[in-house]
Design brief:
heterodimer, A: mainly alpha, B: two-stranded antiparallel sheet
């Protein structure tokens, strides 16, 4: 355990020192890895217990659009707007989650309900085009460097923010992983009826991770919006985004703390690598390869890269941990 | 009731035909193989590209292009089963859904790669019929008729042939069917081929009405899933009824509000119905 702690501290020190030595382009990539890693971690918080959501774009969209709209129309600082968007997202998670879990909507029925939820948010943003700009997207009003507006042209600030947010995600993951609730949730994902029979409050346990996941995802969406200073319904709430979240989390491994981050690293390295290699006119190439990889991962390696590595290292421990 | 509302309702009815056809394909696969093909609408997209390519680029006659496209998508359906579903038939249903999610990603991106995101139209303009101030497009009428004929043909196939009977039997009881001497793998392949062929037929009918682009599957894919679930996954008659209900909501909602809002309405209705009647509107 001691070595692990030292390794973690050393890793953190490297991450803190990185902006001092990396050029702006790599800093941009690192910010993306951290923010997506955070969002994928947020998805895994519920995904690892068999709650497969195909609609996390809904939470991301609300988290991103609420602060941007409040800022543009009412001059409300994101310091208020972001908590509000995150709270709304959590509320949505609650509203959808409660009846789902109460009425035992599970498996692919749950996945389809979340898919519909993502569509509801996406199409609502498009339909409210007079306010949100519809499919053309929305640009938060820029006022230069400002703590009040949470706008920093200097990427170093956002690197620090992304790093903090990412660490929060890891802490949340670890908290759930270490908590008593984990046993309960694993029991639920193995056999819901049996879990209920031994006195586990199924609805409550599932709702807890769902709301945590929705909250974190919305926070990720909000920070992304502040960083990119451009929002588009398809890129924050589309089916593509929701599936990308699922894919990267699975590829990296949703049963390990750093798995989703590895997924983010992998997908962003792949996208950028192919873009540099083939040039920008080869748009679909990266996603084409993602698609094939996703199929291969689900078929051959449902525990993801990190899960697979761990299983290879400790064959006995892996046998007892939750598989797919 | 004014003429425009009636026109919207009739167009909704005609749209329902194609949606019902696609729902039948999806339902057949779900009922028999117990798998949700998330990428089903993207098989339709492939079919539409096939029609476009054969007809516009290679200059084949339209009926031939249609026939080859239907066969092509049927083959694609078989490939999907052999390459993606068959290896993970025994694992959790959600894994199969995710694997076809990968297929969706792959097909959309691959189409972007080779066809770019341009909107393409096969450029066949069928006349518009006017009846008492109501305009109905001939291509929609044709689509409705063919979709209905396809559904009836499928019904007869399932009722009258040996394989059809075996397919229905497997949908009712997966465990016992092996004991009856039916080759399950062969039935799965036939079912995947029929599912693919229905997607191909839907593609031909949609190609007459809409432009094709790599992401067209996203516009009606979630819709047909919703219809399937509303009708009760695996329940073909339920799916048929649900197709008509949903397309009326969309057509009439689109008339009163906007297209997007009518979709929002339909999706919210879907979520609510999942809570109230998860077994579907006509389920037992």
């Amino acid at each position: 355990m001691k070595e692990r702690r030292i390794a973690a501290l050393a890793g953190l020190a490297v991450l803190l020192a990185l902006p001092l030595v990396t050029p702006a382009y790599f800093l941009h990539l690192l910010i993306q890895v951290l923010l997506w890693g955070f969002i994928y971690t947020a998805w895994s918080v519920m995904g690892r217990f068999g709650l497969v959501s195909l609609g996390h774009g809904a939470f991301m969209g609300i988290g991103a659009y609420v602060p941007a709209l409040l800022w543009n129309y009412f001059d409300v600082t994101p310091w208020l707007g972001i908590p509000l968007g995150v709270a709304l997202s959590a509320l949505l998670g609650l509203i959808i989650g409660y009846p789902c879990f109460r009425l035992r909507v599970v498996g692919h029925y749950f996945a389809l309900v979340t898919l519909a939820l993502g569509q509801v948010v996406l199409l609502s943003i498009v339909a409210a085009r007079d306010i949100t700009g519809g499919s053309l997207g929305l640009t938060p009003r820029s006022i230069g460097h400002s703590w009040y507006a949470l706008q920093f042209p200097d990427k170093t600030y956002f690197y620090a923010i992304a790093l903090m947010v990412w660490l929060v995600g890891l802490l949340a993951w670890r908290w759930i992983d270490r908590g008593i609730g984990r046993e309960a949730l694993e029991a639920i994902s193995d056999d819901e009826e049996a879990a209920a029979a031994i006195g586990i409050d199924v609805t409550r346990e599932k709702l807890r991770v769902t709301v945590i996941s929705a909250t974190l995802t919305a926070l990720g969406g909000a920070v992304f919006g502040q960083y990119l200073m451009y929002l588009n319904p398809e890129t924050v709430s589309g089916i593509g985004v929701s599936l990308q979240i699922v894919f990267a989390a699975i590829a990296g491994g949703m049963y390990a703390m750093l798995g989703p981050t590895v997924g983010a690293l992998l997908t962003i390295a792949l996208t950028e690598g192919l873009r540099v290699w083939f040039g920008a006119n080869f748009v679909g190439a990266a996603n084409t390869i993602y698609g094939i990889l996703l199929i291969l991962f689900v078929v051959f390696m449902p525990r993801g890269i990190l899960g697979w590595l761990e299983a290879a290292r400790r064959p006995r421990a892996a046998a007892t941990s939750p598989a797919e | 009731m004014d003429a425009f509302l009636l026109e919207a309702a009739i167009n909704g009815l005609l749209l329902a035909g194609v949606l019902a056809l696609l729902t039948l394909g999806l339902n057949l696969i779900f009922g028999v193989i117990d798998v949700v093909w998330i990428a089903y609408a993207d098989l339709v997209m492939c079919g539409m590209y096939a029609v476009y390519w054969l007809f516009v680029v290679f200059g084949w006659p339209l009926p031939l292009a249609f026939a080859v496209s239907v066969v092509g998508v049927a083959v694609l359906g078989v490939l999907v089963h052999l390459l993606i579903i068959a290896p993970i038939l025994g694992s959790a249903p959600i894994n199969q859904l995710l694997a076809t999610g990968g297929l969706l990603y792959f097909l959309q991106s691959f189409a972007t790669l080779i066809f770019t995101t341009d909107f393409r139209n096969i450029g066949v303009r069928l006349p518009v019929i006017e009846i008492g101030g109501i305009y109905i497009s001939y291509s929609r009428l044709l689509a409705f008729g063919v979709a209905l004929a396809g559904a009836i043909a499928l019904y007869l196939f399932l009722k009258r042939t040996y394989i059809g009977t075996a397919i229905r039997a497997i949908a009712q009881d997966r465990e016992i069917i092996g004991l009856m001497g039916v080759d399950q793998r062969r039935i799965y392949l036939v079912t995947s081929a029929i599912g693919g062929a229905l997607a191909g037929l839907g593609a031909c009918l949609l190609a007459l009405q809409y432009d094709v682009h790599p992401f067209i599957g996203n516009t009606f894919g979630p819709l047909i899933f919703m219809i399937c679930v509303l009708g009760g996954l695996g329940n073909m008659i339920g799916g048929f009824i649900a197709a008509f209900i949903i397309s009326q909501i969309i057509a009439i909602g689109g008339y009163y509000f906007s297209t997007e809002l009518s979709y929002v309405l339909a999706f919210i209705l879907f979520i609510l119905l999942m809570f109230i009647r998860p077994q579907g509107i006509v389920g037992r």
